[in-house]
Amino acid sequence: MPPDRPARLTVLSGPSGVGKGTVVARLRELYPHVWVSVSCTTRPPRPGERDGVEYHFVSVEQFAQLVRDGELLEHAEFAGNFYGTPRAPLAERLAAGQPTLLEIELQGARQVRQSLPDAFLVFLAPPSMAELERRLAGRGTEPADVIAARLDRARIEMAAEGEFDAVVVNDDIGRATAELVGLIEAVCP
């Protein structure tokens, strides 16, 4: 039987390198009842990423078709690649009353806020800019110029923290994950 009302969507956003993916991976392990939306991207998979798990990896042409067909709730370009959230699976989970999490960048979070004003937006913040720089460099997946661009963008994103309903500082992965789940469960009874 469907719930009396759909669950509220929780959106997790924050600067690149803050640990969104790590928090979400921990959440998937420890709190499997929370459904995590899988975004589409045109970027190539990083080592260990699997199609349909971390992302749906698509071509630029496939992504453009999804946009044309209105199949994405939000979409954005970031660091030369496109990202977007498939609309249908998200709507199905929310209608079924399942706690639902969407991990996206600031531009996408703003689009979600416009189209779904009841969405609960959570900003994942680094303990400091120095720590964020260390994390980005420590990935070893991008050249120095890309890291510099991500840090410039991070400064802009950090200034948007006030647009969010809650802020979680990622200084400890376990604590940050538990705090995020507490926020999800508070808005998705």
UniProtKB/TrEMBL annotation:
Catalysed reactions listed for this entry: GMP + ATP = GDP + ADP
CDD domains in the record: GMPK
GO molecular function per UniProt: GMP kinase activity
Domain Guanylate kinase-like stretches: 7-185
Annotated ATP binding sites: G14, P15, S16, G17, V18, G19, K20, G21
Cell location: Cytoplasm
Main location as per UniProt: cytoplasm
One Pfam family here: Guanylate_kin
Keywords on record: ATP-binding, Cytoplasm, Kinase, Nucleotide-binding, Transferase
Enzyme Commission code(s) on record: 2.7.4.8
Family, as annotated: Belongs to the guanylate kinase family.
Function according to Swiss-Prot or TrEMBL: Essential for recycling GMP and indirectly, cGMP.
Name the record gives this protein: Guanylate kinase
